[in-house]
Amino acid sequence: MPTDPHRTLKSTFLAASVVLLFVVGAGTAFSAGPPPPPAGEQSGQGGPRGGMMDPQRVEERLVSLKADLKITEAQTPTWNNFADAMRANAKAMQSAATDMRPAEGAAPDALKRMEAMDAMAKVHAQGAERLLSAFRPLYAQMNDEQRQLAAQKLAPPPPPPRG
């Protein structure tokens, strides 16, 4: 059965758009840093947890997303590849964020800061590629309802209000 090239192009564009929006949204969540902890609450590490880079938060997001997208048993192996990509991205972002922090007591260094920003941008780009590569096969297995849900659930978060 021949495939309609317009439909294939449209599906590919939609998949790429959804993944890009998700990555941008996730990147924004990563780069914005963690929200402040509730009053009087700190993590056991002496500070708030690492936002979306926190392995527990990533796992919570994956459980929620899998349920929201109604991932079937047949889709589970492909979903697992996507989930592994999200975990790898969070780990890479956490590592890059740690590398960006100057040593305690070190004087600010503009060149080192710019090099760290460049490294972070590369981590973002590699993460986008990793996530897109893992999402394409999953998206190909999704039915129309799941694709609509993905478009909603993988949209970037709204920007913070300006004050």
What's the short version?
The protein is 67% helix and 0% strand. By secondary structure, the chain is an all-alpha fold.
List the helices and strands and how they pair.
Layout lengths: L4 H28 L22 H14 L7 H25 L9 H32 L2 H10 L10
Helix pairs in contact: 1-4, 2-3, 3-4
Can you give the helix content as a percent range? 55-70%
Strand fraction: under 5%
How widely separated are the two ends?
56 Å
The run of helices and strands is HHHHH
Major sheet description: none
**Model regions low in confidence, pLDDT < 50 over at least 5 residues:** 12-49
Features:
163 residues; mainly alpha
Overview of the structural elements:
- The protein is an all-alpha fold.
- It has a domain at 52-99 and 110-157.
- Helices cover 67% and strands 0% of the residues.
- The chain has helices spanning 5-32, 55-68, 76-100, 110-141, 144-153.
- α3 (76-100) runs antiparallel to α4 (110-141).
- The longest helix has 32 residues, at 110-141.
- The chain is elongated and about 55 Å long.
- The termini are far apart.
- Mean pLDDT is 76; it is low at 12-49.
